[in-house]
Amino acid sequence: MKTQIAFTLNNELRKMDVETNQTLADALRYLMGTKSVKCGCERGDCGSCTILFNGKSVRSCLILALEADGQEITTLEGIKKPEEEMTPLQEKLLANNSFQCGFCASGMIMSLTPLLKKNPSPSEEEIKEAIAGNLCRCTGYEPIISAVKELAKENRQQKEKSK
Amino acid sequence: MPIAHEFKYLKAKSLKNAFALMEKHPNYQVLAGGTDLICAIKEGMISPEAVIDIKGLKGLSKIKLSNGELSIGSLVSYSEIIESRTIKSYFPLLKEAAEKVASCGIRNRATMVGNICSAVPCLDAGAPLMVYEATVVVEGKDGERLIPIKEWFVGPRKTSLKAGEIVKEVRIKEPALKHGIAYDKLSRYEGEDLAQATVAVYLDEQNNYRISFGSVAPVPVRASSIENLLNGKALSAELIAQAKILVAQEISPITDIRATKEFRLHMCEVMMERSLKRAQMMLGGK
Lengths: 163, 286
Known about the structure:
The complex is a heterodimer. Chain A is an alpha+beta fold. Chain A folds into 2 domains: 2-78, Beta-grasp domain (Ubiquitin-like (UB roll)), CATH 3.10.20.30; 88-161, Orthogonal Bundle (DNA polymerase, domain 1). Helices cover 34% and strands 17% of the residues of chain A. The longest helix of chain A has 20 residues, at 142-161. The termini of chain B are far apart. Classes of the chains: A alpha+beta, B alpha+beta. Chain A binds chain B through residues 3, 19-23, 26, 39, 42-45, 47, 50, 53, 56-59, 61-64, 66-67, 111, 128-130, 132-134, and chain B through 1-9, 31, 34-35, 38-39, 41-43, 51, 53, 55, 79, 102-106, 108-109, 190-192.
């Protein structure tokens, strides 16, 4: 039996008819077309389905689609400002060639985005903690972490300049 | 991947409504954070007829300290525990333990009460709550019950929660004496992993000790023989050596995919020693 829910997806009010036993990851991919949400381990270990649920990074494979009713959901498709081509984080990741196959990329970015919002210049430890639940099987994480460190450094310098 | 099992999704409007729903659908599961529940349904470990979502219930999402007693509502997530100033200042053991739970994306959703309701032997919240001598507050249609944490865990995935009851909150009395705490979790790697063993230690200025081990027995263990040995005595290298001998009597680790029982036992001795020393340093203001 399908139930209609209404929620905010990437700043737009949307409705979708979902099955009771449908996960949010599944509904976002196949009903809303936000294909940045990847289905990996399906048990919360790999982080590839990470989205923002009311601003907090969560695993959408462990949430029922029905739980999104009335809530605010952000996927990778909705993080950039309208005037940007991509966010500064994404630009840095691209410049550093941080990903190879790219399957983990959207989850990594969705885990790092709230960290950078809260703390624009996180330490290496904080960066590692934020992506501790995001698995990357290609890169060994180094190019991802160094890209974020570069951004953190630039943000720190900019803050000092504006003082 | 869709979930193969079909179930009804019911959103409880009030506690009373939740009790009525549980009575009407005896094969139910309560949904809060869902990080354990959805996984268990997906993997076919449980097949509830109805999933009762309690996230809309009022009064279950607060962390509150009043009259020297902390209460953590059943909808409070691990991230909220980490961010709470009250917990950081007065119950730091909970913060230390919460920080080591899974990953940020799980902690943003998973609740501590859900953790003790799942009651898997490797749960993270067990040892710290045992050391703080927490009380679990449950309510059913016949009223409220207060369950001491040491009576809460009955066996692997088994608690004293009865059918038709919901956990409202966990209460902890603020320790009256100046004290130090320490928590240690053994996992295969830093970051996200299930515990192979956990140790929580409390030590106060009158040399009262509380020690608990998790993930090394069917339920979290309060190490009373070690506490009896240590109580009233100032910590010394000799005393720690004696205490370490008793660890083997207190715990019953098994060998599984994550570690062997020998390794778990050895590491419990090592982690207890480290934790006792760390709690003592904290007590000394270092």
